[in-house]
Each structure stands twice: as structure tokens, then as C-alpha cells.
Amino acid sequence: MSILIALAGLGLLIFVHELGHFSVARAVGLRPRRFYIGFPPAIAKTTRNGIEYGIGAIPLGGFVKIPGMHRPTAGDVDQHFGPAAAEAPELAGPLDRLRRGLTDDDLGSARAALEEIAGRRESLTLSPLALRGFDRGVGELGDALGPDAYWRAATWKRLAAIAAGPGANVVLALVLLTILFATGGGRATTTVDTVVANTPAKAIGLRAGDEILAVNGVPVQASQISERINASKGAPIRLTVERDGSRVELGPARPRLQEGRYRIGFALAGEGLGLAESAWQSVRVTGLVTKEIGASLGRLVTGEGRDEISSPVGITQAGSEAVQQGTDNFLWVLALISLSLALLNMLPLLPLDGGHVVFALIEGARGGRSVRREVYERVSAVGIVFVVLLFVIGLSNDIGRL
Questions:
Q1: Which of the listed CATH numbers 3.40.50.150, 2.30.42.10, 3.10.105.10, 3.40.190.10 matches domain 189-271?
Q2: Residue 37, Cα to own-chain centre: how many angstroms?
Q3: 341 neighbors 13 (Cβ within 8 angstroms)
Q4: pLDDT tens digits, residue range 256-300?
Q5: pTM higher than the cut 0.70
Q6: Per-residue exposure over 66-97, b if at least 16 CB sit within 10 Å of its own CB, e if not
Q7: What angle do CA 204, 210, 216 make, to 5 degrees?
Q8: How far apart are CA 359 and CA 349, in angstroms?
Q9: Nearest-angstrom CA–CA distance, 363 and 321
Q10: Cα separation of 92 and 116, whole Å?
Q11: SS3 annotation, the chain
Q12: What count of other Cβ atoms lies within 10 Å of the Cβ of residue 300?
């Protein structure tokens, strides 16, 4: 059950990311054609107001199809209409006019030729393969030549639509962190909130509601408890707690090394902060996490930090473990994953959002002149290799941990 909840949480993060793209694209006049969670083939889909909404069978993300992401070229004509042209020679004239219009940057002539081609559909006798290519070509080139095509839009509209996905994940992380700081995660107390099953803390009888007074006989404040346990370096420790008005001695317990720190398996209850302070703390934590993620990527480039990378398998496992430790822990993890998703997507590589931001800025600096398709394709190939490499490294790490 915890794995299903973790997967649902990841699905929520993807939905929020794509909803950011979708909502802002519509707001700035770049009317999306499709909005999917997961990738096709579709398990379920529906079309409303000309937009196809669907759930894909491949649960590896999601996408929003914004029309005309790239400037159309004469090569697109052959790619889409090649089989149809071979089976219907009467298309040769309008297809040639379409190519010339695209080559000469005469978009009016190109649109007129495409409309003529589309108008001949019912009179053609085409094989299923040729017909699929024909319909796809009419749709794709129609979008690319339309007034709401992405490549024709003002730079600020393109930046807004692309940055809105990562931005939505950052906003979600800030909201979750603010709620957590305001509802008990802001300032630790000496009272035990939860005790994790199958841990040393559980073995020695520590209970939720116990107030920790001392570690190894030395009185402690809330901020000192974790440090004292970690300072043991795995040597047995004893806890003095107050339970129902009586002092109780617990232990010994031998801390275990987990994620670089010695722990015995419990969490302290927290006191909520005011709304303003909670919001500020959420911004502060976001800054710290952003800095650490950037440092991790830097270490990866230098050959270090390989073990810090996780794939969706490891992320799901971490989410599942957090679910078992309580709602607050799960929401903390969800907020950090949301922030990580935003930062990863802003890397300046295609097909990531950050790559599209970079190219939008470059083309804006060029006075709106599009970068050649070949450049997009080469940069995308490098980006895909990088993303696949991260996935493979993360998956190998997760398999080793499992």
C-alpha cells in the first residue's frame, strides 16, 4: 500500500508540472493540443474544446503538446507525405508549392498549399500507412503554420510556457514546506513523536509521547539529542525519559549508520511556527536544497557523487519508506522530490525545459530568427544521452541499495 501511495505522490508531482505548462501556455495564447499523464498508447482519453486529455500506458512522466515547437522545413513535407505522394501522383503540385513556401519563408503560400492538400483527402485512395502519414502531416504542419505556433511566439511567451512547469513544482514544494513548518515541523521538542518499527529505539521500548531528558546520563535539549546519538559512532547509548510523570531508563541501544548518520529510529515532535516565519523557512530550505543539488551535479561532473543519484525506483522506495513513517515524513520527501524535479528540468539541455529556455533566449537575441533544426536535433541527442546516463547510474545505485 505504501508503494501505491508513493507512486500516487510522484504522479501528483508530474501532474502539477504538466499543469503548469498547460495553464500558462493557454494563458499566453499558445493553445495546447494534448495533455497527458504518462506516454501513449493511451489507456483512456477524451477530447474537449479541441484538446485531447489522456492517461498513457507508459508511466514515465507526462507531456503537454504545444503546437509548432519547431519551425517547419521542406524536409517535413517528405517525411509526412512521402508515402501518400508515391500512391497519389496528383499531390505532386501542391506538395511542391508547400516545399517552396517553406523554403522561401513564404508562410502564406505554404498555408494555402497545405489547405489544398487537406481538401483533397476525401478524393484520395491511400493505404493505411500513407493515410496515417497524410493526416499527421496535415495536423503537424497546420499547427506549425498556425498563428499560435510556439516557434512564432514572442520570446516572453515561450519562456513563460516552458518555465511554468518547473515553476509549478517549486511553488508546490514551497506550499508543502510552509504547511509543514506551520503545523509542527518548525521547531523540535524533546517529546517523541514516532518510533520506527524494527529499530533499536523500538527494541528498548521507547514510545511516542516519551519526553527525552538525557542521553547517557547527560541532560539534553531538543537540538542536542540527534547530535549526541550521532556522536556515539555506534557505541551503545542509554536514554532517560519522562513517561506518565515518572523517570524511566531505557537501553542500551546500539545506533545504526543510516544515510551518513548514526540513528536509533525515532522522530521528535515539533512546534508549529507562525505563517510568515513558516513561509520564510520554506524559502530558506528551498535555497539550501537547491545549493546542495547543484553541488551534487558538480561532483558528478568531476567523477564524484555517483552514489548520490537515484532513479524512479529509488525515489519510489524513499517515498514508500516515508509513508510508513507518517504523513509528515511523506510530505517532506514529496516536497524535496518536487524541488529536485524542477531543478533537474532546468538543466540547459534539450529536451529538458532548461534547454528550451536557452534556445528561446538565443532566438530572441537573434531577432526571432529560428535556430536550424539540425542544431536542435544534435543538442537534443546530447541531452538524451545525459538523461539516460543519469537514469542508468541512478538505477544501478538503487539496485545496489535494494
A1: 2.30.42.10
A2: 12
A3: yes
A4: 988 778 999 998 888 788 889 889 989 998 888 888 877 777 766
A5: yes
A6: bbbbbbbbbebbeebbebbbebbeebeebbeb
A7: 55
A8: 10
A9: 45
A10: 12
A11: CHHHHHHHHHHHHHHHHHHHHHHHHHHCCCCCCEEEEEEEEEEEEEEECCEEEEEEEEEEEEEEECCCCCCCCHHHHHHHHHHHHHHCHHHHHHHHHHHHHHHCCCHHHHHHHHHHHHHCHHHCCCCHHHHHHHHHHHHHHHHHHCCCCHHHCCHHHHHHHHHHHHHHHHHHHHHHHHHHHHHHHCEEEEEEEEECCCCHHHHCCCCCCCEEEEECCEECCHHHHHHHHHHCCCCCEEEEEEECCEEEEEEEECCEEECCEEECCEEEEEECCCHHHHHHHHHHHHHHHHHHHHHHHHHHHCCCCHHHCCCHHHHHHHHHHHHHCCHHHHHHHHHHHHHHHHHHHCCCCCCCHHHHHHHHHHHHHCCCCCCCHHHHHHHHHHHHHHHHHHHHHHHHHHHHHC
A12: 16
* Residue 38 reports pLDDT greater than 90: no
Place of cell 498563428: 147
Extents of the domains making up the chain: 1-28+151-186+273-402, 31-65, 74-145, 189-271
* Residue 394's pLDDT band (cuts 50, 70, 90): low
Place of cell 505554404: 110
Q: Residue 83 has which C-alpha cell?
A: 508515402
pLDDT in tens, 223-255: 899 999 999 999 999 999 999 999 999 989 999
Q: Exposed/middle/buried for 145, CB within 10 Å: 0-12, 13-18, 19+?
A: buried
For cell 495553464, what's the residue?
A: 23
- Grid cell at residue 23: 495553464
Closest CA to 392 of 310, 319, 330, 287: 310
